[in-house]
Sequence to fold (122 residues):
Amino acid sequence: MKSKSRERNGVTILDLSGRMTLGEDTILLRETIRDLIAQERKMILLNLADVPYIDSSGIGELVSAFTTVKKVGGELKLLNLTKKVRDVLQITKLYTVFDVYLDEEGAIHAFEKEAAPPMFVG
Fold:
């Protein structure tokens, strides 16, 4: 698996490509998430458009990344799931845990809405 990082409107987008399986693939994702958190980059969007396959270790790493980011007050969302990845998330009932988006614009907008301070009417 390979990872490219880019920034858009304060959101870090990780463009992942390749199979997400046990071994170096899941280690890469774990280390990348930890590095981003260390840099105070807590709004993370995982673009999975080029991830054709994910095994149970990959799923476990997605869940681990999600909880790690949540613990530091951040948000992790998923973008562009391939059919196989979407099917695995639905079978494992994790599709309801993650915020999943079909287009980058909608995902970025969702981060902006969450970052907005609450409005009080007085």
User: Anything to note?
Assistant: The chain has one domain: 2-105. Residues 85 and 104 are 18 Å apart (CA to CA). The two ends are 52 Å apart (CA to CA). Residues 56-71 form the longest helix (16 residues).
